[in-house]
Amino acid sequence: MSEDSDMEKTEPASQRRLEKAREEGDVPRSRELATCLLLLTAGCIFLFAGDGLIRSLSGVLVAGLAFDRTHVFDADVLLTRLEGNIAEVLAAFLPFGVILMVVAIASPILIGGWLFSAKALQPNFGRMNPIKGLTNMVSTRALVELGKAVGKTLLVGIVAWIVIWREKDEVLALALEPMRTSGAHLGSILSVSFIAIACALLLIVLIDVPYQIWQYANKLKMTRQEVIQESKESDGNPQIKAKIRAQQREMARRRMMSEVPNADVIVTNPTHFAVALKYAETGMRAPTVVAKGADAVAARIRELASENGVPLLAAPALARALYKHAELGDEIPEALYTAVAEVLAYVFQLRAYRQQGGVFPTAPDNLDVPPELDPNNAMT
Q: pLDDT class for 156, splitting at 50, 70, 90?
C-alpha cells in the first residue's frame, strides 16, 4: 500500500516544477477564451466603425470602376491603379487588423500570462509517434474537447436561430428602404447579431478556463517520491544535512568546552544547569558567558571545571536566569549585574585565600535575582 501511495500523483506541483514547465512553454491556455475575445472585438469594431469602413471600400470600388480608354490599353497604368486600390483597401483595414492582432497577442495574458519559450519552437519527434497519437485520441482530454465542440455547435446554433428569428421582420423590411440607408441598416443588424452569437461563447469560456487551470495543475502533480527526490536535488539529502548540523553542533560544543578551564566561576543549579562566566577588568564592560549547558552538558562543564580548579557556586535562581537570558559570548543582562558582582567578589576572595591564606570566604546566599528573569517564576 505504501508503494502504491508513493507512485500516485497526489502532491501539488512544486515551484521548481512549475518554473521548469514554463521554461518549456507549458502553461495553461484556453483557445475558447482567445476565440471569444477576437469575435467580440471584431463585432464591436464593425458595429461602431463599420460605416466608415464601408464608405472607404465603396470609394475604392467606385474609383476602380471608373476608367477611360487610355487606362484600358495601357498595362502600366492599369497596374499602377490596381496597386493604388490595393493600398487603399489595406489602409482601410489596417486599424482593425492592428486591433485584432493586439487582442490575439494579449489574450494569453489572461490565463497563463505572457510567455515566449524557445524550447517550444524546437522540433519534438515524440509527437509524431502514431501510438501516442492514438492514445491521445481516446484520452480524457480528447473527450472533453469533443464535448466542447458539440456544446459550441449546439449553443451557437440555438443562439443564431433565436437572433435570426427576432430580426426576421427587420431583414424583410430592408427591401422597402432606400439603397443608401438599407446598407447601413443591414450592417447594423449583422453586427448586433454577430456580437450576440459571439456572446454565447462566453458560457463555454466560463467552463473552459477553470477546467484548463485545473487540468494543468492536475497534469503537473507529483508523487511523494518525486517531491522527496526534488528536495534532495535542490536542497541536498536531508540525512546528510542532519549529519552536517550534528557535526556543527558537536564542533560548537567542543569550542565551548575549551573555554571552561579559562572561566572565573561556574554557576550551577546545582545539577540541571551550569553557566561559566569570565570577567577581565580590561577589555570587558561586563562579565561574559563563555559556556552553558543543561543536564549532560552541564555535568560535563562541572567535571571540566573541577579538573581545572575553576570554582563552582550553587545559585539555582541565578543559574536558571543566566541560562535563559544570556547567549554564548554575550554579556550578562544588566538586571543581573548585582547578583553576578557578589559572585565574582566571592571568587576573587576565594582566589586570594588560595594564594595567601587567611579566612575562608563565605559563599554568597540569597542573591538578588529579579523574579521575572527566573524561568521557574515565569512558569508559575
A: confident
